[in-house]
Write a structure and sequence with these properties.
By secondary structure, this protein is an alpha+beta fold. The chain has one domain (9-84). The chain contains 3 helices and 3 strands. The chain binds zinc ion (ZN). Zinc ion binds at residues 25, 37, 39, 41-42, 54, 56.
Length: 104
């Protein structure tokens, strides 16, 4: 009896169609980083797809990008909580500018 190959898929997501909930696909990320999908389009036509991604994989990539952006937004908000930043509508007269004017 052959030993079952170790799972090569690092991550898995279930994608359910918004318009037809009976349409459920499994998107997986391989250990080497590439993505796969259980839909017929990806299995038979992936070579014709941009980057080899079907629309279900694109959904997962968009979700991951949104999650990464959320982390960035939260980090930015934390930074803004620590610092008060105000854009000035005029250049404050600090006296520094007078010196350069005299040189010219
Ligand atoms: Zn798919």
């Amino acid at each position: 009896m052959a030993i079952k190959k170790k799972d090569q898929w690092a991550k898995r997501w279930k994608v359910t169609s918004f318009t037809d909930s009976s349409q459920v696909y499994t998107v997986s990320q391989h250990n080497d980083g590439h993505y796969g999908c259980s839909c017929k389009a990806w299995i038979f036509q992936r070579k014709r797809m941009p980057n080899g991604h079907c629309k279900h994989i694109e959904v997962i990539l968009a979700k991951l990008a949104a999650a990464a952006e959320k982390v960035l937004v939260e980090a930015t908000r934390k930074l803004l909580d620590e610092w008060a930043v105000q854009e000035l509508e005029y250049i404050p007269d600090t006296g520094m500018w007078d010196m350069s004017e005299r040189v010219v």
